[in-house]
Amino acid sequence: MKITKTTNPIHFEDLEPMRFEDLAFNLLYRQKKWHSINHLGRSGSDGGIDIEGTEIDSQTELKKWIVQCKRYKSFSPKEAESVIESLKTKYPSNNNFLLIISCPFSKTGHDILKELKANLKIEELQVWTNSNLEAELYHNHPDLLNVYFGISIGTSFDLRLELIEKRKKFKNDLNKELLKEFDSFKPIIGPHRFHHRKFIVRSVMDDDHETYQDNFGWYSYFGVQPYYIGDFGITVNLELDYGYINEKQEFFRSENVEEKDRKTIIRRAHLPYENILAYDLNNSKCRPMFYCIYKGEKGPFDKIEWEVE
Fold first, then answer.
1. I need a surface site. Which of 18, 21, 154, 220 has the fewest CB within 10 A?
2. Which residue among 122, 149, 176 closes a domain?
3. Is residue 66 one of the residues assigned to a domain?
4. In a domain, 106, yes or no
5. Among residues 108, 128, 149, which one ends one of the domains?
6. Do 205 and 274 sit in the same domain of this protein?
7. Is residue 2 assigned to a domain?
């Protein structure tokens, strides 16, 4: 039997409370474009907030975030509910809250917070668990992995070469799978050559085989249609509709648009190879499956746009 080398899960709860907050701050600082972000340093205090920041959400809009870090070995749905209710009571004008916890969080907990979000009229309510943190560190921030846990997974040069090879392999494998039904002696022109195929995007956090929605409305399991296979990722079709797109990339459906301005509009997204942790192109039970990291409001994608067909 072949022996496979594995890596033990990271024990975030073993960090000192302030150190866990430092790690959370570093990850937050790198993930968004901030107008300002502050680590308030109230480690170990259940009453206050640990991090607050104002995100530049667009060219004209700012979004204020209240962040609470919990370095616990376990965190119940009831505790999460209590924390969010307390924060909303103390900061009633704020509508964006983030919990960063050092342990797993159950599906029941996610469902309770989803209901709480609606009841309290909260715009965004996110939970980052130990699995989210670990995937983010290994995948995008190996330097922080080394700084906080002494885990080294290669130099930046090695990682860059590994990424290039990964992209090449993905592209070649996908082309072979998606184009295998075509006559190799006939030219295939344009992205429409993939329109007869579909594949499944699945969250790496989906352990219970039940489809659910995250805080941004992304399902843990959904189908997409490939549109174009590029050097850095796959462009896919998410949905088709009829309407109009203005200069701000805002979409208006056909019932709100005069008939002369109506056009066929397709919502397209780019799935970078870096966000695909594993894939099964020969799935006998369903379509090809891609196991992906979800990274917030864009889910597994790094770009989403409406385009006129």
1. 154
2. 149
3. yes
4. yes
5. 149
6. yes
7. no
Please give the residue range of the domain that contains residue 238: 159-308
List, in order, residues 6 or more apart from 250 with CB less than 8 Å away. Answer: none
Is the pLDDT at 67 greater than 90? The verdict is yes
- The residue among 273, 269, 201, 214 whose CA lies nearest residue 239 is 269
Contact predicate 300/219, CB 8 Å: no
| Pair (95, 179) in one structural domain | no
Q: Which of 296, 271, 33, 295 is nearest to 174 (CA)?
A: 271
| Phi and psi based region of residue 53 (left: phi greater than 0; alpha: psi -120 to 50; beta: remaining) | beta
Q: Is the torsion defined by CA of 148, 151, 154, 160 positive or negative?
A: negative
Are 159 and 142 in contact by the 8 Å Cβ rule? The answer is yes
- Specify the pairing of strand 289-292 against strand 276-280: antiparallel
Side-chain-facing half-sphere of 51: CA atoms under 13 Å? 28
Q: Does one domain contain both 122 and 179?
A: no
Q: Work out the average pLDDT over 227-246.
A: 81
Residues 134 and 233 in one domain: no
The whole-angstrom separation of Cα 298 and Cα 272 is 12
What lies within 8 Å, CB to CB, of 139 at 6+ separation is 274, 277, 293
Indicate left, alpha or beta for 52 from its phi (over 0: left) and psi (-120 to 50: alpha).
Answer: beta
Token pair recorded at residue 139: 């995948």
Instruction: Tell me the C-alpha distance between 234 and 203, whole Å.
Output: 16
pTM for the structure as a whole: 0.54
Judge whether residue 80 has pLDDT over 90. Answer: yes
